[in-house]
UniProtKB/TrEMBL annotation:
<dbReference type="InterPro" id="IPR021454">
    <property type="entry name" value="DUF3105"/>
</dbReference>
<feature type="region of interest" description="Disordered">
    <location>
        <begin position="1"/>
        <end position="37"/>
    </location>
</feature>
<feature type="transmembrane region" description="Helical">
    <location>
        <begin position="45"/>
        <end position="66"/>
    </location>
</feature>
<keyword id="KW-0812">Transmembrane</keyword>
<protein>
    <submittedName>
        <fullName>DUF3105 domain-containing protein</fullName>
    </submittedName>
</protein>
<keyword id="KW-0472">Membrane</keyword>
<keyword id="KW-1133">Transmembrane helix</keyword>
<dbReference type="Pfam" id="PF11303">
    <property type="entry name" value="DUF3105"/>
</dbReference>
<feature type="compositionally biased region" description="Basic and acidic residues">
    <location>
        <begin position="22"/>
        <end position="37"/>
    </location>
</feature>
<feature type="compositionally biased region" description="Polar residues">
    <location>
        <begin position="1"/>
        <end position="19"/>
    </location>
</feature>
Length: 223
């Protein structure tokens, strides 16, 4: 009788042990599934946060680029500080000297032949009538007198030589050491390092004031 009871107790103990093991396995599996779901939730949240940050950066960067472009356009639209302007300038071709109301001239009747202005630097004075025709094509004319420093003249010549639709020559009749002239616009400065020199060139070389944009700056008068 005792032996039978012992055998039954052993069987029950084995069943209980197996049950405990199965339950433990189920608990581990459930815990692993919960941990996996938690990782998936964290990964989704991190992905959303990263995507939002990237999108915000792209949007912010896009607005920055738009604002920068707008600022540049506004700067180009604004006049250069200290410049003089003239409007309603005549544009007839004439074969005679023209009495211009400003020195150097900033527009008006002019020669049928333009002065070459593809970064041309002239060491001697040129005819006003030819230079005015160049400005009609969108060129900026840089002139200087004997009050300009030699270093400034050299630096300006280097700048002009690298800039299409510009030309440079001495003009002993002008008041300012250095003058930059475009069609209808003129700026006087004392030094080439003046930041307005670059502003004037950037604004008026083939600028909105050009009566004949894209017209040639080569094939004209070369001396």
């Amino acid at each position: 009788m005792a032996s039978a009871n012992s055998r039954n107790a052993g069987k029950n103990k084995g069943k209980n042990t197996s049950g405990f093991k199965a339950e433990a396995r189920r608990a581990r599996i459930a815990e692993q599934r919960r941990a996996e779901r938690a990782r998936e939730r964290r990964n989704r949240i991190m992905t959303i946060v990263a995507s939002t940050a990237i999108l915000a950066g792209l949007v912010g960067g896009g607005w920055y680029l738009i604002d920068a472009a707008n600022d540049k356009e506004q700067a180009k639209a604004a006049p250069v500080a200290g410049e003089k302007t003239w409007s309603k300038l005549s544009r007839n071709h004439v074969d005679k000297k023209v009495d211009y109301p400003m020195t150097p001239p900033a527009g008006g009747n002019h020669s049928p032949v333009w002065q070459n202005c593809n970064g041309n630097v002239y060491t001697r004075p040129i005819q006003n009538e030819n230079a005015v025709h160049s400005m009609e094509h969108g060129a900026v004319w840089v002139t200087y007198n004997d009050k300009a420093a030699d270093a400034d003249v050299k630096a300006l010549a280097a700048k002009v030589a690298k800039t299409p639709y510009t030309l440079m020559s001495p003009d002993l009749g002008q008041v300012s050491p250095i003058t930059l002239t475009a069609w209808g616009h003129q700026l006087n400065v004392t030094k080439q390092s003046d930041p307005r020199v670059a502003q004037f060139l950037d604004k008026y070389v083939q600028g909105a004031q050009t009566p004949e944009p894209g017209a040639a700056c080569t094939g004209g008068k070369s001396a």
